[in-house]
Automatic annotation (TrEMBL):
<dbReference type="InterPro" id="IPR011993">
    <property type="entry name" value="PH-like_dom_sf"/>
</dbReference>
<keyword id="KW-0040">ANK repeat</keyword>
<comment type="function">
    <text>GTPase-activating protein for the ADP ribosylation factor family.</text>
</comment>
<keyword id="KW-0677">Repeat</keyword>
<keyword id="KW-0967">Endosome</keyword>
<dbReference type="InterPro" id="IPR001849">
    <property type="entry name" value="PH_domain"/>
</dbReference>
<keyword id="KW-0862">Zinc</keyword>
<keyword id="KW-0343">GTPase activation</keyword>
<dbReference type="GO" id="GO:0005096">
    <property type="term" value="F:GTPase activator activity"/>
</dbReference>
<dbReference type="Pfam" id="PF16746">
    <property type="entry name" value="BAR_3"/>
</dbReference>
<feature type="domain" description="PH">
    <location>
        <begin position="98"/>
        <end position="193"/>
    </location>
</feature>
<dbReference type="InterPro" id="IPR045258">
    <property type="entry name" value="ACAP1/2/3-like"/>
</dbReference>
<keyword id="KW-0863">Zinc-finger</keyword>
<dbReference type="InterPro" id="IPR004148">
    <property type="entry name" value="BAR_dom"/>
</dbReference>
<dbReference type="Pfam" id="PF00169">
    <property type="entry name" value="PH"/>
</dbReference>
<dbReference type="GO" id="GO:0008270">
    <property type="term" value="F:zinc ion binding"/>
</dbReference>
<protein>
    <recommendedName>
        <fullName>Arf-GAP with coiled-coil, ANK repeat and PH domain-containing protein</fullName>
    </recommendedName>
</protein>
Length: 206
């Protein structure tokens, strides 16, 4: 009789299983209802996302195009700065404007890093001066060329270098070619000689 009673209790297990299945059904039904309410918003979000992807691709393409144009412009300006006319290699100690010679040179800094910077140099009024840009204020490297010497430098890591030495300091410079280096050296030497011819007496008195 006990076994018969135990066998009849199987309905309790089935009832528990059925209750569990109902709970599962209710859970997923509520989840479906919630997501179904969100369906219009998700569709709208998907549409906006597609548009964002398109806009991002267009913006990226425009930025790449602008970047390419800027690079071309920078390279063009760089090559324009570095290009020089052979007619400008010559110097003139009797130039009406007083500028014996001018052009771009690399100047080695006197700091610990010995960095090289490209500057616009000129020889005028018996001085060696430079500017960072063409219209900047002049920076005097050598105040009186009569007190200086100039010589080419071969034992250095860069080509076409020459050094202007004064009693207080020296300035290491680099030209863009051997022809330009020789022209600058000759221009400095000619300026020194011209300065001696123009005012020898006052120089000796000093």
């Amino acid at each position: 009789q006990i076994n018969v009673l135990q066998a009849k209790k199987k309905f309790e297990i089935l009832d528990a299983m059925l209750s569990f299945m109902h709970a599962q059904y209710t859970f997923f039904q509520q989840g479906y209802s919630l997501l179904h309410e969100l369906d219009p918003y998700m569709k709208k979000l998907a549409t906006e996302l597609d548009q964002l992807v398109i806009d991002s691709a267009v913006e990226k393409r425009e930025m790449e195009h602008k970047h390419a144009l800027i690079q071309q412009r920078v390279i063009s300006l760089y090559l324009q700065d570095f290009s020089y006319d052979d007619s400008k290699v010559e110097f003139n100690v009797d130039a009406p404007n007083g500028v014996v010679m001018e052009g771009y040179l690399f100047k080695r800094a006197s700091n610990a890093f010995k960095t090289w910077n490209r500057r616009w140099f000129s020889i005028q009024n018996s001085q060696l001066v430079y500017q960072k840009k063409l219209k900047d204020v002049l920076t005097v490297v050598v105040e009186d060329l009569r007190l200086c010497t100039v010589k080419p430098c071969e034992d250095i890591e860069r080509r076409f270098c020459f050094e202007v030495v004064s009693p207080t300091k020296s300035c290491m410079l680099q030209a863009d070619s051997e022809k330009l280096r020789q022209a600058w050296i000759q221009a400095v030497q000619a300026s020194i000689a011209s300065a001696y011819r123009e005012s020898p007496d006052s120089f000796y008195i000093e």
